[in-house]
Write a structure and sequence with these properties.
Number of strands of chain A: 12
Distance between the termini of chain B: 37 Å
Helix content of chain B: under 10%
Number of strands of chain B: 10
Largest interface: A-B, 30 and 30 residues
Oligomer: heterodimer
Order of helices and strands of chain A: EEEEEEEEEEEE
Radius of gyration of chain B: 13 Å
Largest sheet of chain A: 6 strands, mixed
Strand content of chain B: over 45%
Structural class of chain B: mainly beta
Strand content of chain A: over 45%
Helix content of chain A: under 10%
Largest sheet of chain B: 6 strands, mixed
Shape of chain A: globular
Shape of chain B: globular
Number of helices of chain B: 0
Distance between the termini of chain A: 38 Å
Mean pLDDT of chain B: 91
Structural class of chain A: mainly beta
Chain lengths: 116, 115
């Protein structure tokens, strides 16, 4: 079974509107971290936001927020006030707890296109 | 400060040749990871180094792949007898230490094309 699932291969959003990118995960480890990365056409992976499994509040970083629903095992990324520069691939990733070398397990990504 | 750097940025090679990819992590970062990204896909973990501990090689796809790291500095990923299916972007990442909260910062990647 896939550990990270991103069901939206592609998304469109109008400039200045908000958009939600979906991510569900599967783990039996009580300690884990969830990450979102942005990959523009240049290819580099840019860290956006992190949510720990024990965090009580949803993470926020500027225009990015993470809608963390632990019981449903979802960690959706919300981008507010979309900008043209937000057009990119977005990857959700999970890092499990001790004993797993802390490698990141990535989803297949969502391509976001912001329309002017 | 400087981020993760990788060289070369692009590498074109013929099937059967060996290639060597280099990664310079962020100074002071003890953990270093190699990932592979095939066209249109997410990243696959290859190998992990943490200080002087034995590396986690569980993601290496075959014995043609190997990697080394000296202390907490440069790492080299070597692919022997390259095959066309090895064509991908190879990304290196480093993190300050090893915990589930530590963010991995990625380099720009090396795009490998095997003809």
């Amino acid at each position: 079974a896939q550990k990270i699932t991103q069901t939206q291969p592609g998304m469109f959003v109008q400039e200045k509107e908000a958009v939600t990118l979906d991510c569900t995960y599967d783990t039996s480890d009580p300690s884990y971290g969830l990450f979102w990365y942005k990959q523009p056409s240049s290819g580099e992976m840019i860290f956006l936001i992190y949510q720990g499994s024990y965090d009580q509040q949803n993470a926020t970083e500027g225009r990015y927020s993470l809608n963390f629903q632990k019981a449903r095992k979802s960690a959706n990324l919300v981008i507010s006030a979309s900008q043209l520069g937000d057009s990119a691939m977005y990857f959700c990733a999970m890092r499990e707890g001790a004993g797993s070398s802390y490698k990141l397990i990535f989803g297949s990504g969502t391509r976001l296109l912001v329309r002017p | 400060g400087a981020g993760v750097s990788q060289s070369p940025s692009n590498k074109v090679t013929e099937k059967g040749k060996d290639v060597e990819l280099r990664c310079d992590p962020i100074s002071g970062h003890t953990a270093l990871y190699w990932y592979r990204q095939r066209l249109g896909q997410g990243l696959e973990f290859l190998i992990y180094f943490q200080g002087n501990s034995a590396p986690d090689k569980s993601g290496l796809p075959s014995d043609r792949f190997s990697a080394e790291r000296t202390g907490e500095s440069v790492s080299t990923l070597t692919i022997q007898r390259t095959q066309q299916e090895d064509s991908a972007v190879y990304l290196c990442a480093s993190s300050l230490s090893v915990s589930s909260t530590d963010t991995q910062y990625f380099g720009p990647g090396t795009r490998l094309t095997v003809l």
